Amino acid sequence: MSNAFLQISNAEKVCRKEIPHLSFDEFRTQALDMVTDGGKVVQYFAYPDKNRLKLLAVLRTDKLFVAGCDVPDPYPSFTRICEPFHLFEREMAEQYGIRPQGHPWLKMVRYHPNYSDGTADVFGNDYTQDIPGNYTYYQVEGEEIHEVAVGPVHAGVIEPGHFRFNCIGERVLHLEIQLGYQHRGIEKQLTQVPDKRLPILGENIAGDTTIGHSLCMAQNLEALTEIQPDQGAQVIRTIALELERLANHIGDLGALSGDVAFLPPANYFGRIRGDFLNLSLLICGNRFGKGLVRPGGVRFSLSNEIRRVLNDRLAELRPEVTHVLELLFNAVTVRARFEGCGAVSHEDADHLGLVGPAGRASGMAYDVRRCFPTEHYPHIDIPKNKKATGDVYARARVRYDEIHQSLQIIESLAAIPVETRCVSDGMAYDLPASSFSVALNEAWRGEVSHAVLTDENGKILRYKIKDPSFHNWNGLAMALRDTGISDFPLNNKSFNLSYCGFDL
């Protein structure tokens, strides 16, 4: 059967009338065929259009494809045939009351009622049993089984999330993760706020992924308005994204060091993370990169003096980073704790659609910078970095490799004089009518994706966000299977997933 989906490019404007509007049966068959043959789901969501509810799917193989259809009644689940659709279908059930028949586990994705009236779906079916107050956590039966509940309020300074362990003795049989206690409603706000507020909301989707999310939003708005940032802006954006990757990977390795009570690297990594955050401060006046990326380019240039200081600081930091990395990874006691702990098989990672370091640790070589490059990445050779074991050690080792690679990327780009025309903040965007764009970037946790649909008046009809944590939280649950409960903190740090990036 020929592929009825439309092939598109990353961050490309597409007229909505060009997107194939298939019959549901053809849409379902084509989507299932692509994903069961090794494709992955980038976006799959519902949206209202002229009093009708429609579906749109963006899938990837070595290329990107898009198609849509109307929502049928009844709506047969894709998940019962192909697991990667399961979380997307649960999200649509929550947001629009679409209840896919045959879905194996239709619990809410985030802890609130569905976006309808909380009692009925769009077809008038009873939804009362699925509202939060009536939710029953999965239970394992047996006289020796006990449950351990952690959160949503935690002793540490972290965001709210609930973890429910079913254990026999110290061994974890099942971990159920419940998130979404913040009720932020970011996606709905993005369809309602003035244009000048869009970048502000975009860079605050997840504070530790400011550049990753800002880039996706800027690239979509640039594609829709046909604005092209200059080469200097693309270089600065690439440097900023790699600095964000460096700071977070180094912070994660410090946290892992602390969890195995190896305090010297924990302390060194914590200090070095601050040094890399200060390099972002040097470039744009903010340690997390807020206010740097805007549609059309960047708000701050890279002067010769800033480049000199950046190069000097990188030259000082490189031997320190190398020394502390070797201190951690050459310690036999650390290897003994990391190796074999919390392994996620390649098969499970594939079914869950794991991305980023978590996916590469389980043999998934996918990296947006290599597969769908934007900004300056088409001119950079990005290694595959995949590992075989899928354990804590593999997830840490991916970070080890990417720290060295990010340092090399930044050093090479900072050595080149670049000129850019800085853009102003608070711009208004004249969006085209009935258009679509989807942007992907490799943030430090993995694939970030934003999709935008405009209506016939050029207003945002639907803004869909997908943080890498959307896929990877279930990877953490799988990593805890048949593992000692005392290993939870170590495994949790090895994923270090986002609560706010998930709670949209």
Compact summary:
Helices cover 38% and strands 16% of the residues. It has 504 residues and is α+β, with helices and mostly antiparallel strands. Residues 114-133 have low confidence and may be disordered.
Defining key terms:
504 residues; Cytochrome-c3 Hydrogenase, chain B; four-stranded antiparallel β-sheet; 14 strands; globular; NAD; oxidoreductase
Describe the structure.
- Residues 50-109 form the NADH:ubiquinone oxidoreductase 30kDa subunit domain.
- The protein is globular.
- 46% of the residues are buried.
- The strands form four sheets. The protein has a four-stranded antiparallel β-sheet with strand order 1-5-4-3, with helices on one face. A four-stranded antiparallel β-sheet has the order 2-11-12-13. It has a four-stranded antiparallel β-sheet with strand order 6-7-8-14.
- Helix 6 runs antiparallel to helix 7, helix 7 runs antiparallel to helix 8 (304-329) and helix 8 (304-329) packs antiparallel against helix 13 (392-414).
- The protein folds into two domains: 6-134, no CATH class; 186-495, Cytochrome-c3 Hydrogenase, chain B (Orthogonal Bundle).
- It has helices spanning 24-36, 86-96, 186-189, 198-202, 210-225, 231-259, 263-284, 304-329, 332-338, 346-352, 356-361, 368-371, 392-414, 469-479, 488-495; strands at 6-8, 14-15, 40-49, 52-60, 64-70, 145-150, 162-168, 171-178, 293-294, 297-298, 435-443, 446-454, 460-466, 483-484.
- With 504 residues, it is α+β, with helices and mostly antiparallel strands.
